[in-house]
Amino acid sequence: MHDDLTPDAAPFSLQLFARWPDMDFNQHMRNAAFLGASEDCRMQFLAQRGFPMAELKRLQVGPVLLEDRLTYRKEIGLLEPFRVDLALAAATRDARRMKLRNTLYREDGAVAAVVESVVLWFDLAARRPIAPPAALAQAWLTLARTDDFAWFPERA
């Protein structure tokens, strides 16, 4: 855990490989698999920062996905290893709302896809958006930032 809000120097990374159920009719990784790999990366980030699903359940908070934007660059084939990086592209200062950027790299270093997701935190009991608990907000706000990172405006 960080003692301040200084962002990490490097994005969080997860190594994966393209599985048979990830393939589309053209024998390339399908769009839902790119989105799933991005989700897996975000959940591994949370777990490694002390927030596995059991802890989120205990805190009665959860992420709500508002938007996904997927941009394809290169194909990934069956059994091909790939890396998923996670960085913070935008956030409110309390981490209530964030834009997360997952970049998926092929083994040869080429960018296969970029997934940008807008997420907010939700109080599961009250069924409304909230600022996450301080330690959870700190985990997100100390994630490495994209070169074009920007603060979201605060809402009144």
Quick summary of this structure?
With 156 residues, this protein is an alpha+beta fold. The chain has a single domain (12-149), classed as Hotdog Thioesterase (Thiol Ester Dehydrase, Chain A). It has helices at 31-48, 53-59, 134-141, and strands at residues 12-17, 61-72, 81-91, 97-106, 111-123, 128-129, 145-151.
Write the layout of secondary structure elements.
Blueprint lengths: L11 E6 L13 H18 L4 H7 L1 E12 L8 E11 L5 E10 L4 E13 L4 E2 L4 H8 L3 E7 L5
Parallel strand pairs: 3-7
Antiparallel strand pairs: 1-3, 2-5, 3-4, 4-5, 5-6
Report on the structure:
This protein has 156 residues and is an alpha+beta fold. The chain has a single domain, classed as Hotdog Thioesterase (Thiol Ester Dehydrase, Chain A). Helices cover 21% and strands 39% of the residues. The protein is built from three helices and seven strands; from the N terminus they run E-H-H-E-E-E-E-E-H-E. Strands 1, 2, 3, 4, 5, 6 and 7 form a seven-stranded mixed beta sheet that branches. The longest helix has 18 residues. The protein is globular and about 45 Å long. The two termini are 31 Å apart. The model has no long low-confidence stretch (mean pLDDT 94).
The major beta sheet can be summarized as: 7 strands, mixed
Any low-confidence stretches, pLDDT <50, length ≥5?
Answer: none
Spell the H/E element sequence. EHHEEEEEHE
Overall SS class: alpha+beta
CATH superfamily: Hotdog Thioesterase
